[in-house]
Amino acid sequence: MKLFIKFILFLVVLAVAAPFIMKRPDGRPLLTISDITSGDSAIIKSFNTLTSFFRSPKDGLPNGEPSLTTVHKWQDKEGLWHYSDQQPTSTTSQILAINPNQNILEMNDKKLLKILKGEKEETASTTQDLEPPKNMIPGLPSIEQAKKAMDNAKAVQGLLDNHYKQIEKY
């Protein structure tokens, strides 16, 4: 057991020391002490990126609110919408502030939600209620297309289940 612990400790020391010993194609070591101690090192940035996944939304700003992502939205000459984190130079753009901890699409239409759940309303017109809300992102499928895609997925699942049952017979 002592030999196993010594072997594990040797592997840990080797894993820590290897980047300082191994050389890049230009002859410099992969990692130096100055890489670790400098504030703008790739290691520190990588560590901060990894730890950002484990922070709660309250860690965003000092007052407890999450930080917002700024996105520029503009339409080109052909009528296509573009989104970028950088402002376009050729045209003006709208600035959108997006909370990364919140869904972009919110379904606030109660009639539409009832129809999607399969509940019927006596006074509701199904053609009127099946239209998507005005604030949806362009290019998303309509509700009819989404339902058809779900039906197709269920049919494919049925085919796969039947195929699996046939394979199990052999």
Q: What does it look like?
A:
With 170 residues, this protein is mostly helical. It has four domains: 2-54, no CATH class; 69-98, no CATH class; 105-139, no CATH class; 140-170. Helix content is 44%, strand content 9%. The chain has a three-stranded antiparallel sheet with strand order 2-1-3, with no helix packed on it. A hairpin with a 5-residue loop joins strand 1 and strand 2. The mean pLDDT is 75.
Taking pLDDT < 50 over at least 5 consecutive residues as the criterion, the unreliable ranges are none
Q: What is the number of beta strands?
A: 3
How many separate structural domains?
4
Shape: flat
Task: Give me the strand/helix succession.
Answer: HHHEEEHHH
| Rg for CA atoms | 28 Å
Tell me the fraction of residues in β-strands, as a range. Answer: 5-15%
Structural class determined from secondary elements: mainly alpha
Please state how the strands of the largest beta sheet are arranged side by side: 2-1-3
Question: How many strands, which pairing sense, and closed or not: the largest β-sheet?
Answer: 3 strands, antiparallel
Terminal Cα span: 48 Å
Percentage of residues assigned to helices: 40-55%
Q: Can you give the mean pLDDT?
A: 75
Count of helices? 6
